[in-house]
Design brief:
This protein is α+β, with helices and mostly antiparallel strands and 93 residues long. The protein is built from 4 helices and 7 strands.
């Protein structure tokens, strides 16, 4: 668990902590001065692909959709989404 001085104990890693702790799941700033996401939560990936959370969880469980673990959090990297969908990685939001 992490201790947040203003809020108390956090139950899970937030995205910024994962980036800081694991060497970066975000790319450098793109031309719009916006950080480009390199990994998504299963819920975010489901929304991006237009699938239900249950289907994404089934795909993760069977290994059809690859993912990585960061602490207790599961992240689906952009290249995993691209490989699953059979599209170039640049086409993933």
């Amino acid at each position: 668990m992490l201790l947040d001085p203003g809020e108390g104990v956090l139950d899970h890693w937030n995205y910024t902590d994962v980036v800081r702790h694991h060497g970066g799941f975000m790319a450098s700033a793109d031309s719009g001065n916006r950080l480009q996401r390199l990994a998504y939560s299963p819920d975010e990936a489901a929304e991006l692909m237009g699938l239900s959370r249950e289907l994404v969880n089934d795909l993760l469980r069977t290994g059809e959709l690859k993912s990585i673990k960061a602490g207790r959090r599961r992240l689906i990297a952009r290249h995993h989404l691209a490989a699953f969908l059979g599209v170039p990685e640049a086409s993933i939001a």
